[in-house]
Design brief:
508 residues; five-stranded parallel beta sheet; four-stranded mixed beta sheet; 20 helices; 18 strands; elongated; disordered C terminus; AAA+_ATPase; YifB family Mg chelatase-like AAA ATPase; Mg_chelat-rel; P-loop_NTPase
């Protein structure tokens, strides 16, 4: 008799139903696992048989075939151990109670029968809910935020024996501390930076507020020490807290990558310019999320952007355009979400002092052009805001800046308007252009003005689209229903980047 027990497999964040089929067949005693198992799944036979031996069942003299269906998909995780053990017990008559077809079994087994969590538990649980399972047997993990899964009964079990007793209707009191279902909470923000503490850069702060409100990408260009990194590291303080669904998505990605994150707050990733393309985009034999996916729903800050390998930077084109990244390998092809705000910072030239009022630039025109060419035109096109920064004279700066909390409240209100307008959690920087134009069409005079500026500055269609998105966000911050002329003007000025020739820099 073939016994069928259900579990969950993962392909990136996408979960699919795995049917664990167990049958005893005549032949030489062994346990054979088929269905494209990788090394961690093949080794399950030793873990499972040792766990069954600890449970008091010895099947070393039997020939058992375990089939993981669907057979065409590679199985990567030891998450199927528990399902295999239950299937063997059922096939050999040691478990007589019926196993519901609406129940999934997740967890790795240790040699003494203890059930342990593995990477990717949260996306597997969310997939189980989406696939229509009613119950999930799994090990307790305090990092799993499960309180919102009202349609899914999560049964926490510590050992194989506990699982069998539960299936047979015996509710055994555990000797461990009582399980509690963890909740996602928005812990107080622990930032040591605040926009109020940054002297000057009022235009840059305004531009960053617009970027936070609409989810727009920003490139900052300025000499060393002008405050590019400081502004970027303070930027997360004006971002709204993550919504519940967004938090689950982010935590799932971090679990797959084996990293921890502070729940409730948008992630901030700051890879070094020596980072490889695999670490930035993701990959490996079994593709894992890279920096672009770990920055999902948050910020990816590329300091010294021109120092990154040109090939690596060009790999950002797909995630910047689509909000996701597809990684293809021989073993599998996975797609991870990568919807982030890109903050780039770079110097105007290799020495950094082109256009400076206080230092002389030592770079030749050829060196300057080669430095700028490290960031390709398509990447420049995908940056919504281009900021030119200069060193602040502290003796002349007297204007008081607003606090991050004050700015964040305006950003939250602007995003609320966007969510209501589009009927879903999406910003002006990410919504489809068709829906943007349907909800906020430009007047004829505004279209003519934009076309004139585009012709004068040789802006591509993509840049013109980004200006319209910026204008919509600026109008949301101002509280106007239509895109105002002033908002369109301000959006166009955010695409102006100071460029100095060698002669102009010397004259200054």
């Amino acid at each position: 008799m073939t016994v069928k027990i259900l579990s969950i497999g993962l392909r990136g964040l996408e979960g699919y139903r795995v049917q664990v089929e167990v049958q005893e067949v005549p032949g030489i005693a062994a346990m054979v696992i088929v269905g494209l198992p990788d090394a961690s799944v093949k080794e399950a036979k030793e873990r499972v048989l040792a766990s069954l031996y600890a449970f008091g069942c010895d099947f070393f003299d039997k020939r058992l075939v375990v089939h993981l269906s669907p057979p065409e998909r590679k199985k990567h995780s030891p998450m199927f151990d528990l399902a295999m053990a239950i299937g063997i017990l059922k096939a050999m008559g040691k478990l007589t109670a019926p196993v519901s077809p609406d129940a999934a079994f997740l967890g790795s087994l240790s040699l003494d029968g203890a059930i342990q969590p593995v990477d990717g538990m949260l996306p597997a649980i969310l997939a189980a809910k989406k696939l229509g399972f009613q119950k999930v047997y799994l090990p307790y993990d305090p990092t799993l935020p499960l309180h919102h899964l009202k349609d899914l009964d999560c049964i926490f079990v510590q050992t194989l024996e506990e699982t069998v007793q539960y299936l047979q209707g015996q509710r055994v009191l555990s000797l461990s501390p009582a399980f509690r279902t963890p909740e996602i909470t928005n812990s107080p923000r622990k930032h040591h930076r605040d926009f109020q503490s940054i002297i000057g850069h009022h235009q840059a702060k305004r531009a960053l507020e617009i970027a936070a409100a609409g989810g727009h990408n920003v490139l900052m260009v300025g000499p060393p020490g002008c405050g590019k990194s400081l502004l970027a590291e303070t930027f997360p303080t004006i971002l709204p807290s993550l919504t519940h669904d967004a938090q689950l998505e982010v935590i799932s990605l971090y679990q797959l990558a084996g990293e921890k994150i502070e729940s409730g707050h948008p992630p901030f990733r700051h890879p070094h310019h020596s980072a490889s393309s695999v670490s930035l985009i993701g990959g490996g034999t079994h593709p894992k999320p890279g920096e672009v996916s770990l920055a999902h729903r948050g910020v990816l800050f590329l300091d010294e952007m021109a120092e990154f390998a040109k090939k690596t930077l060009d790999m950002l084109r797909q995630p910047l355009e689509t909000g996701k990244v597809t990684i293809s390998r021989i073993s599998s092809t996975v797609t991870y979400p990568a919807d982030f705000i890109l903050l780039g910072a770079m110097n105007p030239c290799p020495c950094g002092y082109l256009g400076s009022r206080t230092r002389y630039c030592t770079c030749s025109p050829k060196q300057i052009q080669a430095y700028r060419n490290r960031v390709s035109g398509p990447i420049y096109d995908r940056m919504d805001v281009l900021l030119s920064l200069e060193v602040i004279d502290f003796t002349k700066e007297t204007r008081v800046s607003e606090s991050s909390e004050t700015i964040r409240k305006r950003v939250e209100e602007a995003r609320r308007k966007q969510y209501e307008r589009y009927g879903k959690e999406i910003t002006n920087g990410r919504v489809s252009f068709e829906l943007l134009m349907e909800k906020s069409p430009l007047a004829n005079r505004q279209q003519l003005l934009l076309q004139q500026w585009a012709s004068q500055h040789q802006w591509s269609n993509r840049v013109q689209t980004k200006i319209i998105r910026l204008a919509r966000t600026i109008s949301d911050l101002k509280g106007t229903e239509e895109i105002a002329d002033e908002s369109l003007w301000e959006a166009m000025t955010l695409r102006w980047l100071k460029t100095y020739t060698k002669q102009q820099a010397t004259a200054r």
